[in-house]
Amino acid sequence: MKQIMIDGVRIDLVSREGLCETILEHVAQKRKARILNVNVHALNLAHRYDWFRSILNGAETVFCDGVGVQWAARLLRIDVPTTITYADWYWELMDRCARHNVSVFLLGSTQENARKAAANTLSRLPNIRISGFHHGYFDSDAYEAREVRRLIAQSNPDLVLVGMGMPLQERWIRDNYLETAGYVFLSVGACFDIVSGAISIPPRWVFRAGLHWVYRLGREPLRLFRRYVIGNPAFFFRILTSPKKTGLEL
């Protein structure tokens, strides 16, 4: 698998099909793995926090989620042929899990959204094995965190989707994946909010045009203003001016 390095973060150039195959292979071999995604926000966090960059670079697979990273790679004369977003890839992944009898645990969002996401997934894919779900609003050092690990252990899933937002979900995966039941742990952001219907997604042409961030900013301007209006220009300025700008294939 080809890899590139952007702003100190390793990114795997994996296709949607290849990513599904990687997950199924880890599960079949009962091998622990962390599969994380990066967008401009993730790379800004990695630039600011060494510990977050270490989490990303320590994962078994890191894939490109976001056209901003794809554009940055092109500025560095590196082609990233595919971006993978959970808004539509989730259903492809769940279909593969259903066909290969892979059980899934949903961890994150609110309890209601996690429940609806599980119910909607079962409604669309009746053969999918949803082993359980739990909200993501708990103190990672408290009693409830131990109860979450106990619940996951009772459910005994193959795949754990963690949707707590960056960087909380990545930190939880780093701190818990070895001691928690499950083989593959994925960071999925707001995926459960989307699958539950709590957050609407734009038409496909918006994704193809690379304007998904504009759509999200329009719907949540207060929460996302700093991430997109400040964060995106800062990222591209850094890529274009930093003497450490990299992007060479490894």
Structural features, described:
The chain has 250 residues and is an alpha/beta fold. The chain has one domain (14-196): Rossmann fold (3-Layer(aba) Sandwich), CATH 3.40.50. The protein is built from 12 helices and 8 strands. The strands form 2 sheets. The chain has a 6-stranded parallel beta sheet, sandwiched between helices. A two-stranded antiparallel ribbon has the order 1-2. Strand 5 (103-108), helix 6 (111-124) and strand 6 form a beta-alpha-beta unit. Helix 2 crosses helix 12. The N and C termini lie close together (9 Å). The relative contact order is 0.18.
Tell me the layout of helices and strands.
Elements: E1 3-6, E2 9-12, H1 16-28, E3 33-38, H2 40-48, H3 50-58, E4 61-64, H4 67-75, H5 86-99, E5 103-108, H6 111-124, E6 129-134, H7 143-155, E7 159-163, H8 168-176, E8 184-187, H9 191-196, H10 204-208, H11 212-219, H12 221-241
Parallel strand pairs: 3-4, 3-8, 5-6, 5-7, 7-8
Antiparallel strand pairs: 1-2
Helix count from the secondary structure assignment? 12
User: What share of the residues lie within helices?
Assistant: 40-55%
Sheet-strand content, in percent, reads: 15-25%
Mean pLDDT: 89
Order of helices and strands: EEHEHHEHHEHEHEHEHHHH
What class do helices, strands and sheet pairing give?
A: alpha/beta
Gap between N and C termini: 9 Å
Strand order in space, largest sheet = 4-3-8-7-5-6
Provide the CATH topology.
Rossmann fold
Q: Total strand count, please?
A: 8
Q: Mind telling me which CATH architecture this is?
A: 3-Layer(aba) Sandwich
